[in-house]
Structures are given as C-alpha cells and as structure tokens.
Design goal:
Radius of gyration: 16 Å
InterPro entries: RmlC-like (IPR000888), RmlC-like_jellyroll (IPR014710), RmlC_Cupin_sf (IPR011051)
Order of helices and strands: EEEEHEEEEEEEEEHH
Protein name: Putative dTDP-4-dehydrorhamnose 3,5-epimerase
Family: Belongs to the dTDP-4-dehydrorhamnose 3,5-epimerase family.
Pfam family, one: dTDP_sugar_isom
Number of domains: 1
Number of strands: 13
Number of helices: 3
Strand content: 35-45%
CATH superfamily: Jelly Rolls
Structural class: mainly beta
CATH architecture: Sandwich
Helix content: under 10%
Distance between the termini: 42 Å
Shape: globular
Largest sheet: 6 strands, antiparallel
Keywords: Isomerase
Length: 183
C-alpha cells in the first residue's frame, strides 16, 4: 500500500493498496496502521466506521462538520463513485482548493480527508457502497451542508442527479456557509 499526497488539498492523502489477483478474484489490505502512521496520521484516532449504499446518480453532499471538524477515510468498497473534496480551512495553503477522484471497488483506494474540508460524492454505478472511517463520534448539531451546485465551486458532477436528501437539496451556498461560520 502506498500513500500519495493530494496536491490540491493540503494534508489529504490517497492510499492505494496492492491487490493480489488470481482466478478467484482479488485480496487487498484496505487499511494499514503503519502506512497511515508513515503519512503523519494517527491510525488510532478513528472511532467510527460507517457505510452508505447509493444507486446510480444519487448525490450525497457537500458535507462537513463545524467545531473541531471531522477527518475521515473514504473508500468505495463496491461500484464506482465520483468523489469531491473542498478545502474550507481559512489558514490552509490550499484554501478553497478542490480535488476530484473516481473511487472504485476495483481499486479499493482510500481517500483521507482532513477536518475542515467539505466532502461529497455521486454514485456512478447501479450500486455503489461507500465506507467511511471517522475520527469523531457523530453530533448532528455540528452538521453543515453546502449546495452541491454552487457556481463558485463549479463541480463537474458527471451524471444528472437522480436523488438526494432534502437537506442536500435545500443546502445554502458556499458564501452563506462561510458568512455564517465567521460569526
């Protein structure tokens, strides 16, 4: 497994496993504490694992947490997703930077998203399972959502949106979220 820094988002990493394939399929390690530690991250910091299943065209996000934020490892364990990260840390050298990835069950690559970054994805296959390893217990009072179609972000979502939560549909613009966070 190798860790590669994401140049558009300071502190973000892409962890790419080495699959061992044969006539049965493949086997790969999707998490390795030593590799995570070598990237300067604490592998013991993660306290919660979650999984979402989405159908083609479903869009989830853009989400982040207020307060201390939330760092997470994100992996598409089955199917394919278009994954988006936006750096919303005012003191970051990549503030307002955006990065796009295609994560898939074929590669099992994992994306580390630092606290203070917004995250969202769209399912590209009929079924897409997305796994999250999160570094803080969830507190719904800290949930923040940004409009997925904010023109300032101009995210090139690859498919028409077939479904999303009401919260995501009604999300405020990036400018509104940033103005609220300054208070």
């Amino acid at each position: 497994m190798k860790a590669t820094e994401v140049p558009e988002i300071a502190g973000a990493y892409l962890f790419e496993p080495t699959p061992y394939a044969d006539e049965r399929g493949f086997f790969c390690r999707t998490f390795d504490a030593d590799v995570v530690r070598s990237a300067g991250l604490d592998p013991d910091a993660f306290v919660q694992d979650s999984l979402s299943r989405s159908v083609r065209g479903v869009l989830r996000g853009l989400h982040l947490r207020s307060g201390a934020g939330e760092a997470k490892l994100v992996r598409c364990s089955y199917g394919r997703i278009f994954d988006v990260v936006v750096d919303l840390r005012p003191d970051s050298p990549t503030y307002l930077g955006r990065a796009f990835f295609e994560l898939s069950g074929d590669t099992q690559a994992t994306l580390y998203i630092p606290a203070g970054c917004a995250h969202g994805f769209q399912a590209l296959t009929e079924t897409a399972d997305t796994s999250y390893r999160i570094d803080r217990p969830h507190d719904p009072a800290e949930d923040v959502t940004i409009a997925y179609d904010d023109p300032e972000l101009a995210i090139p979502w690859p498919l028409p949106v077939t479904s999303m939560s009401q919260r995501d549909r009604e999300a405020p613009s990036l400018a509104e979220v940033l103005k609220h966070s300054e208070k």
